[in-house]
Amino acid sequence: MQGLLGKPLGRVHWSNKAAKTGPLAHRPDNSAFMQQRLPAWSPMLTTSTVLPFMYCMAVLCLVVGVSLLITVQGTQEMKLDYTEAGTCNNCFQSLKNVSNAGKSCSCRVVFTLEHEFKGDVFFYYGLQNFHQNLRKYMDSRDDAQMVGRKQNLKNPSSYCEPYIRDEKDVPIAPCGAVANSMFNDSFALQYQGQPGDPINTVPLYRKGIAWYTDENVKFRNPPKNKSQTLAQVFEGTTSPPYWQKPVYLLDPLDATNNGFINEDLIVWMREAAFPNFKKLYGVLVRTQEPFTNGLPAGNYSIDIVYNFPVQYFKGRKQVVLSTVTWFGGQNRFLPIAYLVTSGLVFIIAIFLTVIWWKFGKDAKNMNE
Amino acid sequence: MAPESEEAGMVKVKVKTQKKKKNKENKTRIVHANILYDNAKGEENPNRHFSDNKIKTTKYTLLSFLPKNLFEQFHRFANVYFVFIALLNFVPVVNAFQPELALAPVVFILSVTAIKDLWEDYRRHRSDTEINHMDCLVYSRPEKRYLERFWKQIRVGDFIRLRCNEILPADVLLLSSSDPDRLCHIETATLDGETNLKQRQVVRSFFHLDCEFDPSKYNGVIECEKPNNDLNRFRGYIGRKCGLYKENLLLRGCTIRNTEEAVGIVIYAGHETKAMLNNNGPRYKRSKLERQMNVDVFWCVIILLVMCLFTAIGHGLWLFQYGDKRPVFDVLSPEGANVSPGLSAVYLFLTMIIVFQVLIPISLFVSIEIVKICQVFFIHQDSELYDEETDTHLQCRALNITEDLGQMQYIFSDKTGTLTENKMVFRRCTVAGVEYSHDANARRLAMYQELESEEEAECPSRGGTLPRRDSVGSHQSARVVLRSQSTKSHRRTGSRAEAKRASILSKHTAFSSPMEKDITPDPQLLDKVNEGGSQLNFIHFHRQPMSQLPSDLADIIDFFVALTVCNTVVVSSPDQPRQKVRMRFELKSPVKTIEDFIKRFTPSRLTSGSNSSSTSSLVTNRSSTRGCSSALSSPSAESTLTKLDEEGSRLGGAGLLADFSPVPGGAELRYEAESPDEAALVYAARAYKCSLVGRLPDQVTVELPHLGKLGFELLHTLGFDSTRKRMSVVVRHPLTDQITVYTKGADSAIMELIKPPLTGKRQRKILCKTQSYLNLYAADGLRTLCIAKKTLSKEEYACWLQGHLEAETAIHGREERLFQSALRLETDLHLLGATGIEDRLQDGVPETIASLRKAGLQIWVLTGDKQETAVNIAYACKLLDPEEEILTLNADSQVQSWYGASTAPIGSGYIPGTVLVGSAHAAGATTPFLVHRLGLVIDGRTLAYALDKSLEDKFLEVARSCRSVLCCRSTPLQKSTVVKLVRNKLKVMTLAIGDGANDVSMIQVADVGVGISGQEGMQAVMASDFALPRFQYLQKLLLVHGHWCYSRLANMILYFFYKNAMFVALIFWFQFYCGFSGSSMVDQWYLVFFNLMFSAFPQLVTGTLDKDVSAHTLQALPQLYMNGQNSEEYKPYMFWMNMMDAFYQSLVCFFIPYFAYAGSDVDLFTWGTPITTLALITILLHLGIETKTWTWMNWASIVFSACLFFAVALSYNSSCPTCYAPSNPYWTIQRLLLEPRFYLLCLVTPVTALLPRYFYRACQGSLFPSPTKVGRQLDRSWRQTHGGNIFSLGNLASTSDPLGLKTAFASFNNPLPRYFPPKDHPQSAHSTLTIPKDAAVSAPSDPPLRTSEDHDQSTATDDTQSCLEVTKELPGVTEGSRVVESPERSALQRSDIGVSGWVSSTPPLLQKEAVELGTAPPGGRSRCVAYTRNWEQNQGSDPETPPVESRTRTQTKQSIAADYSEEDRL
After folding, report:
1. Would you list the DSSP string of A199-224?
2. In whole angstroms, what is the distance from residue A332 CA to residue A70 CA?
3. Cα(B96)–Cα(B92) distance, integer angstroms
4. Residue numbers in A near B1222 (CB within 8 A)
């Protein structure tokens, strides 16, 4: 720009060498970095160089895959669709009528376990075609309310739209669509080893099924005085419109499992990733016979309080009994993925070997 | 700034508005002297409206920075887009993220750019300050003297005093000059690049001021034009009566030269100066890569829209399937009403744009800028591009086109100062048939060169080899010794640079470094000169006839006199400006009239006249007959010495001007010449003690050994012109009093004017010998000049003068008549000798050109120089190869009429060569490198026609088929037109390199402009994108840095596209599982920061540091540069390949976790976080595959990226359970890290995802390695073996050939010159190129090596025997037809007006090709140029070469009619 003055004024003074004077003041640094001569490893991707890696990878994947497969083989899983099964069909039909939505309906489903479920057995309920992962649905919650902020209890966040207040402008607690749509069937599992055997109620832990951090950090009841009951705390709020029970009466059996810290609520609030999902309902208590080793084979029945309507979204309801491995529930995909990958890598490795075999000399030549 | 300040003035001073208005109406500016108003307040100063001399080129002020910068940034569409998206997020219906979070990227991007802009502006500010604080003398009335002021304090109306070598601070009207002629010399190099001095005149009304100009007495009012940018126009009046012209105006930026002092009044200041008004900001350049990238960004937008549309429609359908009964999980609108599927889809479309915004790589733009700045930094820091001598780096002035350097296809280079140093060095000479090789001089030059090449080398003996001949004994020799000692001492301190710098410091003007000045005389010649001088002195002293001097000595003396006299060199001494010596006895001007002539040449006047005249009258007899009187003994060295010592005090002697002593004691004279070769000759003569001491319009003073100073009366100067190719001076010889014509010119021009030697063998022998020496010189690449003289009798002179004066006064055809007059004079010359001058090429120019050419770059030289010089240099720098045939397109003035006549049928186009050869190569165009054995030389005038719309295509066609193109005598405009033409028509990347202001337009037009920051001012540098200290650095700049920058950026951009696509596709796949609701399993934070932070650094490091091939290999294998030329790193399909790969990888990264978690109780973010992690790992590993060199920086950046992700994730997931509504990933990553499943996924997914690319790369590396890959291989092996010549192409070709795969090296081989001795193969076909005299297409293509005899023979045979002619009537048709071998026919064809040509159809099959251009001029003077071509099959001399390339052997022969010189070489 200012070149008309015959001076190299546009010169960029990169390094702060303005202070440096003398004839070679602008001489660049002769460091390896400045001169782009940093010592470098430059791997060449040729058949010869990648082959060892490929074979190693193939073997590694094979080993992992096989071991995973063996582990998976030891697990058991039982899925039972009870939407229209057994006597539940009645309930299903009756719920089709919207006017029966509030009514409680009980039914029983029977099933048989062919094999013993060894180890910890997890009792899940499953829903199919229920999209907990819809964007607006997911957003429709107020974590601040759930964490027990007094202020948010009466003034839920706008995220809860349209379930912030009911028609009478009473704030909803817990607000939002997620809480509103909470799964409200309940289950009681009975075991009858053989027909005629005494019926044992299968004991389930109904607490400790949520994440520890959820129970203790993310979900807290609003602060209360010692004298206050939970119902008093939630005074001035109303339960979500679809709920049959208020939030402080969710668990009639355990008073400490009520309010926002009700574990079923917490589990429900952790929105599932897929439209077909299962959620933990309980864990087998293995303290008494015959369940010390898990669930024995035999006949079982589940008494279901059938409340949750699924026909509107063509959904299905399931009960899932499953044992787990160290890498999750019964899922054969991961070992298979490893085995397939191993196979692919192996095939490619062989292909590359052929190439290397045929043209290896050229690669050598190039190096000469 | 000007309008602003005027505006300000208007507001301030309302009273004066009226007058101001009047000013505006008048469209003039009225300038009063400020000193008249010094006492008055500023308000009353009439000049206050004019802007002051402070310049401000910054864009921003502290206050305006933010708004203005933002405003400018929003000019970039991408920024607007991203802001739009960020704002969209604030709309509740469509929002996708926490609104504040969505702002983060755009704010980040904007601030990074803002910081960059701030920094650049700060740089401008600093340089402004530097300029504003330069000093200048301004007259102050209170002090009554000139005071030092800063430039910025100068106001319009100030009187400023300028001293020699000062730079003008403003546009100044010249009022006074210390020069006796009231002239002021300025150098306008910074404005127009012309280094010759220009004269400016003092305003006429001040012309006759005898005493020194006193500003306080000045009271004029100047009325002149409003500021405008026309450098060549200035009109005005001073005091309403005296006109002002551009000759009176000194422009800002020029340098005062040769004028001790000048005083002027400031007319325009600061931004209103013509120089500043001419100073348009640089064009915003967008690199090719970026243009290409923008196309793909556009594709990304399309993909984005398609994805959004797809999702939106999907969502609509999904909602539609539920009918009226909405499921519980469908969230109603806030009003509780159902939103119709259609409306939902529309909302969702907008939401998806937000969610998928990552696909449009917001950080790409900023990353590219960062990477480019880093690249620029490294280029800047390259010590190999640093010139110690001038202490300059390469300067990158354009920060955004580094990668263009790697894609150049055409280089347009200036010649003088770019290829050459613009330093002419006298090398050797031949006088009277005796060659003086000047070995010592050559050694001296070699020493300079070696000093340059091996600076650290200790070579103590070299200084000692310098001859210190006692016989010289003069201070000249002493200076040589001194010089050698000083160079030695420089060397001792370790660097040639210091020596050079010392030399630079010592010089003030453009041409003259010690290298040029200190010629070491040839001892033999020096002896002879001394002998001749002393004899002459003796003869003269004893009043003996001059003919007693032996003829060879006489020739020698005459030779040196001619060297000193026959030129237009101006003499000055370094300390003082040019002294105009007024010691003339009377004011004489060159002879103007016959009466003047008679008056001057009557003896009476002679005796009464000057000292020189009177003495010369004593010797009146002609001394044309040269007797041999060697009776006189040559004086011994001692006596010479004493005589030389005495010379200062010597008086008397004919023609000696003892009282003429313009040279202050001891001070060295400086010569300023129009062209440096003139200066070189004068310096050469000075080395022999024949120094030019002074030059006046009518007198040249020469100092000769033993004779002292002689005044030569200058009668005429017949200046150089390119048609005559010579210049002459007519002087009266002071010793003989004869009218003598000294002529100096191109050998071709002189040799044919030599008087045929009638007497004796000796002359003929001399002639013959001189010619052979000339050929020798030419072969050495020297510029040859012949020196001749002629003595005229008074009668002859009178006769000639008559005609000449008539010519001078002629109204019509004056030019032509003067030309004829000069021709009349310059006949029957007596050859004195010849000189060989070297226009020194810059170091490494031939190597650079050779290697650039190997790199596939087409090099065109566009020079304003004359054709001979240009061709000469072109040979010297290996631009033209003796092996190739040269097409010379010279259209004379008659062409114009011809042109008019022949525009209609282009078949008989006016440049026959153009049409014909063009079509010839259209035939061979299938293999583009095939026929690059042509060189094209075109001169400016022809260029003007060739650039005409109707012919430009043809011209390009020809030019494209030529291996090198040389445009001589081209104007700056033509230069830029050529560049523009090539750029636009051929759609190629062009680079223009030049050093002068005449190259500026070319530099600006080209894709990349490179300025040589050399001697010729800074204009070119300022207009350029890159400024190099030397031409040879271009090699590394292009081949290494260009390649790197290109490949780095190309790979980075591709990677960016891949990365974003891959990431976004993950979310897209998820839409199939979430009812197309726009939900994302990737947490919003990860989504926003993924590009910006987690994956940003490694690619920046790779983009900055990755080296696909080492600098060493890149320079050794210039062919690798073609990689960039062909855009091989970034082809359109690569974008799609990367997209495919991205989609594949995203499928893998999505579905492996999906199936792994399918049916489980996983929640969305617990499942999404592993996917994010996997994607990150995959992306980083992908970069790892693409990274070629791993420095610790790469490792660090990758590790850092991974760590950064986990650190952010861990802290984000543990910090606050309620802060990041609506998402709440509390403790997710912590839990995941405890799950083995997470790690199992982390292993298998990247492996599967990267398998195809890894496989592809491995196969590519083994099966079809790209040239760069081979380069890397070599690189590696070179590092392993540490040496060995592994870089031969043959090796490379052989490695790839057995594979049967076409490697790029196959094409590399094509352009490589291959030499086959012409004699080995019989000429099987010729083409005859017959050109009308008017529009000559000549082919002076012979290598200068050939001697003339040789040449004549061969051309003769060509002409008569083997003018094989194959003709075709319509050159447009390319199919060849008949081959007829008959000279008669060829003659017949030649008489046809028009063009006939024969063209080979399928080059690979035909081994013979002929080009024929046949016409005969009406005058019957025909000129026939025969091209002989042998398309030879490769005779197995190079077995590795594919057959395609082996046919390019062209042998050219030339036959020229007798009335034309055999060759035009200077």
Report:
1. PEEPPEE-SS-S-HHIIIII--PPP-
2. 10
3. 9
4. 138-139, 141, 159
Amino acid at A332: R
> What is the structure's pLDDT at B1410?
33
Cα atoms in the 13 Å half-sphere on the side-chain side of B185: 21
Q: Which residue in chain B is spatially nearest to A326 when comparing CA positions? A: B1236
Please write the tens of the pLDDT for every residue from B506-534.
Answer: 333 334 456 666 677 777 778 888 887 78
Separate counts of helices (H) and strands (E) for chain B: 51, 37
Mean pLDDT of chain A: 84
Does residue B1313 contact residue B1289 with C-beta atoms inside 8 Å? no
Amino acid in the structure at residue B77: F
- For CA atoms B1220, B1224, B1227, B1228, give the dihedral sign: negative
Number of helices (H), then strands (E), in chain A = 10, 11
Cα separation, B19 vs B46, in Å, equals 9
Q: Are B463 and B488 in contact (CB under 8 A)?
A: yes
Tell whether the model's pLDDT for residue B1404 goes beyond 50.
no
Q: Which pLDDT value is given to residue B201?
A: 79
B1284 close to A (CB below 8 A): no
Name the token pair of B508: 């003030």
Establish whether B414 is an annotated binding residue.
yes
Is B1283 touching A (CB cutoff 8 A)? Answer: no
Virtual CA dihedral for B342, B348, B352, B353, nearest 10 degrees? Answer: 80
Model confidence band, residue A338 (pLDDT cutoffs 50, 70, 90): very high
B24: CB partners within 8 A, 6+ apart? none
Kindly report, residue by residue over B751-761, the tens digit of the pLDDT: 777 777 666 67
For residue B1078, the one-letter residue type is G
| B1163 interfaces chain A, CB cutoff of 8 Å | yes
B464 C-beta neighbours (distance < 10 Å), count: 11
b/e map B1019-1036, b = 16+ CB within 10 Å: bbbbbbbbbbbbbbbbbb
CA atoms of A125 and B1290, how far apart (whole Å): 73
- CB of B229 within 8 Å of any CB in chain A? no
* d(C-alpha B889, C-alpha B940), whole Å: 10
Give CA–CA dist B251/B237, Å, rounded. 18
- Is B596 an active-site residue? no
**What ipTM describes this predicted complex?**
0.93
Which of B136, B274, B331, B1303 to mutate against chain A (most A CBs within 10 Å)? B331
What pLDDT, on a 0 to 100 scale, did the predictor assign at position B1052? 92
Phi and psi torsions of B791, nearest 5°: -105, 140
Cα separation of B264 and B262, whole Å? 7
- Matching residue, tokens 């582990």: A71
Digit-coded pLDDT (tens) for A22-35: 667 777 888 888 88
Tokens of B957: 């066609």
Rounded average pLDDT over B110-131: 85
Give the DSSP letter string of B1130-1187. S-HHHHHHHHHHHHHHHHHHHHHHHHHHTTS--BHHHHHHHHHHHHHHHHHHHHHHH-
Residue B51 pLDDT exceeds 80? no
Q: Which of A140, A146, A184, A182 is CA-nearest to residue A163? A: A140
- Strand-pairing partners, residue B570, are B672
Whole-angstrom distance, CA of residue B253 vs CA of residue A2: 9
Average pLDDT over residues B593-610: 44
pLDDT of A314 over the 70 cut: yes
Q: Which residues, 6 or more positions from B1113, have their beta carbon under 8 angstroms from its beta carbon? A: B1120, B1271, B1272, B1274, B1275, B1278, B1287
Interatomic CA distance for residues B265 and B1231, integer angstroms: 83
Measure the CA–CA gap between B490 and B507, rounded to whole angstroms: 17
Nearest CB among A10, A46, A134 relative to B397 is that of A10
